[in-house]
């Protein structure tokens, strides 16, 4: 049966369309009408009212469903068996969906549990977001997030790790190209691999039809990742041994590279980020704003799960940072978490758009988000694969 969803405004992932109707059939968008035409005969019509707006479902390009957004996500993960972790991942994914986040790119799990959850989703898509899965991130021995179980060294072993992920069904390869703050003994300002090793990973991922994402805090690692051809740069904090130090030369290189940048933005009100993170980000906003003004493709990758300030429904709060210190107009900020995010996930035209043929993953909010981005918190309805989700939770078995 065709569903006709009407609202006083539509945002199609790039622009406002005004009042209109989204026609949904078999989990996909059949048509988007802004002429005021009657719904097809026999269609089930839902009129959300003149104040409501329909958007594509939101997309978070960097989450960790296996982390529980506690004060000690790593400790809790290490003490939990796979069944317990998977149960927590279900809850995390469900929380994201209720906030209108219909696609997440999970850039690091343990034991390929993201693939197990994705398999469950295939039987009940309305229960959780679509998952773009990386599996365990590739890291150096003792490197950042080594506790997730994929320490790899040497070019042949790195290529084999990419092939394993492809054979298992991962969508994206995640590489820890620098150290990170959650792993004692690693350093955010130092690369973890040689440039030729990174190039081998990217070449193999692309040969197999996968995308590649680079965790890059180190300024040196940012340059290496661009040279290697990674599709997305995660975090982009320009770390040196003296802390974040963006340089005009490196910012210009990123601008010229055509690489998409996934910025780690978004925290819930009152949520306390680690002091080092909060202080660092304040130094980074001018460089990120410069990238935006230069036309670099930017998405919001919240790193959901890594601390209490970043629960798995945090993405709507990230838009305020994109529109505030990063300087995006509301339309650009919304595109960053819809159409641009879809492209970063390898899902351009499938997710993040209101157009015929796209998946019917939709968010209905109570007012115009182009006038006030806090409208994203006024969720009236969420559709996943054409199904209206139950806001108090769904049982599929």
Detailed description of the structure:
With 397 residues, the chain is an alpha/beta fold. It is 30% helix and 23% strand. The strands form three sheets. Strands 1, 2, 3, 4, 5, 15, 16 and 17 form an eight-stranded mixed sheet that branches. Strands 9, 10, 11, 12, 13 and 14 form a six-stranded mixed sheet that branches. The chain has a three-stranded parallel sheet with strand order 6-7-8. Strand 11 and strand 12 form a beta hairpin. Helix 5 packs across helix 6. The longest helix has 19 residues. The protein is globular.
Biggest sheet character: 8 strands, mixed
Average pLDDT value? 95
N to C succession of SSEs: EEEEEEHHEHEHEHEHEEHEHEHHHEEE
Please give the share of residues in helix.
25-40%
State the end-to-end distance.
Answer: 24 Å
User: What proportion strand?
Assistant: 15-25%
- Kindly report the oligomeric state of this protein: single chain
List the total number of helices: 11
Shape: globular
Low-confidence stretches: none
The number of E-state strands comes to 17
Radius of gyration equals 20 Å
Structural class: alpha/beta
SSE layout and pairings?
Blueprint: E1 3-11, E2 16-25, E3 28-33, E4 44-47, E5 53-56, E6 58-63, H1 73-78, H2 82-98, E7 101-106, H3 113-121, E8 130-133, H4 155-168, E9 172-176, H5 195-207, E10 211-218, H6 219-228, E11 232-240, E12 243-244, H7 248-257, E13 260-263, H8 275-293, E14 298-300, H9 315-323, H10 330-336, H11 339-344, E15 362-365, E16 379-384, E17 387-388
Parallel strand pairs: 1-4, 1-5, 6-7, 7-8, 9-10, 10-11, 11-13, 13-14
Antiparallel strand pairs: 1-2, 2-3, 5-15, 11-12, 15-16, 16-17
């Amino acid at each position: 049966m065709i569903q006709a969803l009407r609202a006083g405004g539509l945002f199609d992932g790039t622009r406002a369309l005004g009042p209109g109707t989204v026609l949904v059939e078999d989990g996909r968008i059949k048509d988007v009408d802004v002429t005021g035409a009657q719904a097809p005969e026999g269609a089930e019509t839902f009129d959300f009212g003149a104040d409501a707006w329909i958007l594509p479902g939101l997309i978070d390009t960097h989450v960790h469903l296996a982390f529980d957004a506690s004060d000690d996500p790593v400790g809790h993960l290490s003490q939990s068996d796979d069944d317990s972790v998977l149960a927590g991942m279900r809850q995390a994914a469900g929380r994201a969906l209720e906030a209108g986040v219909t696609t997440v790119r999970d850039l690091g799990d343990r034991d390929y549990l993201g693939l197990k959850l994705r398999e469950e989703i295939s039987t009940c898509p309305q229960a959780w977001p679509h998952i773009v899965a990386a599996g365990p991130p590739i890291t150096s021995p003792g490197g950042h997030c080594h506790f997730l179980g994929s320490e790899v060294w040497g070019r042949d072993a790195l290529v084999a790790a990419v092939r394993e992920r492809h054979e298992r069904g991962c969508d994206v390869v995640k590489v820890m190209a620098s150290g990170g703050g959650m792993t004692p003994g690693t350093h955010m300002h130092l690369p973890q691999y040689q440039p030729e090793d990174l190039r081998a990973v990217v070449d193999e991922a692309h040969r197999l039809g996968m995308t590649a994402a680079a965790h890059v805090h180190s300024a040196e690692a940012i340059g290496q990742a661009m040279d290697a051809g990674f599709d997305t740069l995660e975090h982009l904090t320009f770390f040196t041994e003296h802390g974040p130090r963006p340089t005009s030369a490196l910012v210009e290189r990123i601008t010229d590279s055509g690489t998409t940048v996934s910025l780690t933005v978004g925290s819930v009100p009152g949520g306390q980020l680690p002091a080092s993170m909060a202080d660092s980000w304040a130094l980074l906003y001018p460089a990120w704003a410069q990238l935006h003004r230069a036309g670099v493709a930017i998405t919001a990758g919240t790193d959901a799960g890594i601390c209490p300030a970043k629960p798995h429904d945090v993405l709507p709060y990230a838009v305020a940072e994109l529109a505030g210190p990063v300087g995006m107009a509301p339309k650009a900020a919304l595109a960053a978490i819809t159409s641009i995010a879809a492209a970063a996930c390898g899902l351009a035209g499938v997710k993040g758009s209101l157009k015929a043929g796209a998946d019917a993953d939709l968010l209905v909010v109570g007012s115009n988000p182009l006038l006030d981005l806090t409208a994203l918190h006024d969720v009236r309805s969420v559709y996943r694969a054409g199904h209206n989700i139950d806001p108090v939770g769904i049982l599929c078995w």
